[in-house]
Predict the 3D structure of the following.
Amino acid sequence: MSILQTIKSRRSVYQFTSAPVKAKWIDQCLEAAIWAPNHKVTEPWRFWVLGSDMQATLAHIYADSRAKKRADPKTDAFNEIYDKAVFKFQAIPKIVLVGQVLNADPVMCKEDYAACSCAIQNFQLAAWELGLGVQWSTGPVIQDERTFNALQIDSNQVELIGALYMGKPACVGESGRKPVEKVTTYLD
């Protein structure tokens, strides 16, 4: 498949089969990620590949956050939402967290975020080429101080910018884009 075909066919995937994700596949995706363009070669990205114990720990943070948004913690509804959320998070075949090393210079910080976003896109494209789907999530679990504590990360030094949920796609949705001429202006 050409790079353009890969780019055009890639989709965010929200449902995965239970097939395991091989470590060598993750390594290939990470290898692609670190070749993203980055101004002044700052290499601001950091990655955490979760094992089953850490995924279980974060599942409870994820579930607690989700349930607190939807129900009073002292209710059966809260417990039901919590249990479903734990199951949902634990069912994700593999999770890779992406962090950005924070720079005190606001311009460099913005450049570094762009670089990390490019790294995530490279990761997703490499995964797609391997037959894996990825969902880039920016949900509350990556902003929760309990997550930083569990990962032993100083939130003043590194910002988590994405949780990459990945696995073999159970289904792939359709997508379209506006034609180039609708979003481009050519100037002399």
Remarks:
- The chain has a mean pLDDT of 96.
- The chain is about 45% helix and 15% strand.
